[in-house]
Design goal:
homotetramer; 290 residues; alpha/beta; Rossmann fold; N-(1-d-carboxylethyl)-l-norvaline Dehydrogenase, domain 2; 2 domains; six-stranded parallel β-sheet; three-stranded mixed β-sheet; 13 helices; 9 strands; elongated
Chain lengths: 290, 290, 290, 290
């Protein structure tokens, strides 16, 4: 199949490589040349303009911010020059509101739009092990699903409105942040009572909480190891902010999300923005005088 | 070994049966006669007074409230009539402060005191699968450890001051409550955005959150099934309250524990005290107009 | 002086009448004709298009929402057709971010822009008793200050960047909301202890808290009188939301503002959006089972 | 009238002096001799034991902590040796729960017990300007009211159960703390937006918030002047803790009180325990990076 790919950051590059490995004809475009080169060596065609990437059957994009989407033109002008019948699959975590506007911008120009944000870190993306949350028209989703199954271990369709996939994603990331917060408070409490937080973490993350979030982030907090950042605090904060924004739009009170967000602000002030967001646990230890 | 057991509620009865099954000579006492009878049929000796239960090498107790401990006299008078060399193992979740006072009361009367609160529900207790958190003097813990290994799948020593085991336990229960709160908010959010919360729960509790807490409590919230209560909200609320009390004593700010506690109060006002504490999720749905 | 006025809602109409009463030549424009008529009878000139209102020395506007500002064109096109030297005074409470963008839009078209949001309700506006918070260029502020002193009892310049006046205003409104929240919690607490909340309110609002906010909102909470709404909850919620938005932009953690905002969401779900925002107190009583 | 007075701290000494000045025969007792001497010079009789202070018609006490009350014996033994018909007026801010137990201890020994906690600082006490909140039996309150009117500008009876006066007091002190929190957040917000917090405070505390709490504490926050402490943070924290305890007992969710309490813990960790509790404002500025 002829496929385009725009946005080859840490996550995008891994996904693109998997699509290429599946035997598709891939045209890639990126603002900076580095990641393009590596894919070209594996057989990808390098586009000279973003427009070229829209001339296949499917376009994937994974641009980190709303602004990047706008600069490339994927919220407007560029869409008008897409090959008829193109389906655009947006893998990025964007706000529910922006997702809704993007969906409309695509509909206005007869481009099918599927939102497919993913759970997983760069190494998981490279290994094809992502969890992919999909929402969009039945036709669009049907067309791209086989491809998504190449890049993810699990592909779950959650609705027909693209923004629903984004809502799903930010709600999930909020739960991650909440788990970090709860460990941060609990670890600080037991430590001040003279208990080794490694033992506390070890017991719980091998019983009631025997799952990746508590094992991984918990170990990071216990070891105070926040660099290199698997997921930097500033991005986590952005996602919790998007959950709050959605809560506002849907009239859902989210006191725990608010609490976590405020702690992210404090952590940012404390200089943790580029550390892993498990460093929230460090902030909570500091508040307790540890 | 000659062992006594006081307090045969849902949890205690299962533990006592396991000790009996291990071939020990067990003397049991309970305020109400029902559970005593069942154990007598399995070979336990029925004490006519609590005092009789203190004439072995080890006494286990599992009394639900501080008051019950006081009424039986385990915080004072009764201890003076214990067999010399007795080790008292308290399996109940009590406050850090009360644990400290009990430890002192025992030391004053030369009775060794070991705190051994457990994680697990009655069915887990009956199956010998509890996680047992132990703290106390090296000698005392050494003496009781083999027995604890009969009643628990995992036995973890966390310190020499008995109250440390209680701190460990309430900190763990707080983390449980926090997980419920985070699911409650996240589920409300996705539902108001038109997403099936079963799908949301299914995806997350089979990936990032693939562990008993998220699987079990999450299912209960999704199904709005809070009866019969595996763990009633009023007990969960008590434990979060104990975490807050410990936070106050050790100067640890616990904003998330405070948040959960306040929601427990609201849930109590709403009539959920005897429902499973997963019903916090119902409260959060209600706040969002669901 | 030749002055224009756009936006004759409850607040705007009172301010416009005061300007007229001061002997100025006033050209008014409003989307709906009702309020225009009343002012015309007092001698105001009725504009047939918004543009006419920009042909004097000063233009006042008091449009309730960002959208209204955009629809009229005061963020763009319309400004290009203003009389050279015009100073636009925006009396509305808008977001810090939108204020910043408006300031830029005016600068690009050589129109001086002064932000002058006000504290006070419609009756205070009609009586010329508002507190006016002003920010803008020295020249612009200097030109409009005498007029502002006609509409306000107190006029305070707080900076040269127009958005600073808006920040000041939303921070002040947040403090109002916080006072309501604190009364709501305190009143619920004393009531459940059998104390008459009228006595509690009477004592405090005549001693430590002897000021309009506690007297006025407190009386409303005690009497559970939330209609007609002096200031509807949905507008209060909007302002607390603007404070949070500013907190995010300036990296200021605002846990109390977050708390109040979440309660506003709950109150909205409970149907209080158009009641006075003192009805937050009612929400808090309900949470306590009152 | 023959009156006893136990507890001559900063507050008690001023009150005792006012009673003396009203021409009563006053017998004073204090653990440390300093304040006793000053009152003796003004004509007070110095008791050699607390018991002597219970031989008049009325006993006032103002002991800072529950423990002090217990050590003196006012919760038990000492009461049995009181002159028949004695009314004990407790001016201290104690917990609702302890008030209830004290009331019972007095009833058991036929001593009338009136709770009369006060609002006001030492200088206000010395000037006879306190606000006195009274609860107790009609007979007891009737007997002591004329005296209370000598020590307070306003005397308000709020119920017949003594603990109601204590509930009133801690609810009021919570409102104070909430006002400090709200100023702390608002001041931090405007400062980061480049506004002079003195101007912000000046405008608000002379309009909507023109009352002692906002004027006094606000000035302290703006000037960052927290020493000498008019009311030390550790005492304010104790009172907010008592409000939370009452909220727990009466099933009233108090999220704002919880928030303030957690900030008090953080402030304590930061070393502010003995500073004025307006230093909460400093904590909030620090969180914002100011």
């Amino acid at each position: 199949m002829k496929i385009g790919f725009i946005g080859l950051g840490h996550m995008g590059a891994g996904v693109a490589a998997n699509i290429l490995a599946a035997g598709h004809e891939l045209t890639v475009w990126n603002r900076s040349p580095g990641p393009v080169k590596a894919l070209a060596e594996k057989g990808a065609h390098v586009a000279r303009s973003p427009e070229e990437a829209l001339q296949g059957e499917i376009l994937f994009s994974m641009l980190a911010t709303d602004n990047a989407v706008r600069e490339v033109g994927l919220d407007g002008a560029l869409l008008a020059r897409a090959r008829p019948g193109l389906v655009h699959v947006n893998l990025a975590t964007i706000s529910v509101d922006f997702a809704r506007r993007l969906a409309k911008a695509h509909a206005d120009r007869n481009v099918d739009y599927v939102a497919a944000p993913v759970f997983g870190r760069p190494d998981v993306a490279a290994a094809g092990g992502l969890t992919v949350i999909v929402a969009g028209s039945k036709a669009g989703v049907g067309k791209v699903r086989p491809l998504l199954e190449r890049i993810g271990r699990r592909v779950e369709t959650v609705g027909e409105a693209p923004e629903q996939a984004n809502l799903f994603k930010v709600a999930g990331n909020f739960m991650l942040a909440a788990a970090i917060e709860s460990m941060g408070e609990a670890f600080a409490l037991v430590r001040k009572g003279g208990i080794d937080s490694r033992v506390f973490h070890d017991v719980l993350s091998n019983s009631l909480f025997a799952c990746p979030v508590y094992q991984g982030y918990g170990s990071a907090i216990v070891a105070e190891k926040f660099e290199p950042a698997g997921f930097p605090l500033r991005l986590g904060m952005k996602d919790v902010g998007l959950a709050l924004e959605a809560g506002r739009d849907f009239s859902v009170p989210l006191p725990l999300a608010s609490l976590v967000y405020n702690h992210c602000v404090e952590a940012t002030v404390a200089g943790f923005a580029d550390k892993d967001w498990a460093s929230l646990g460090k902030l909570l230890a500091t508040k307790a005088g540890l």
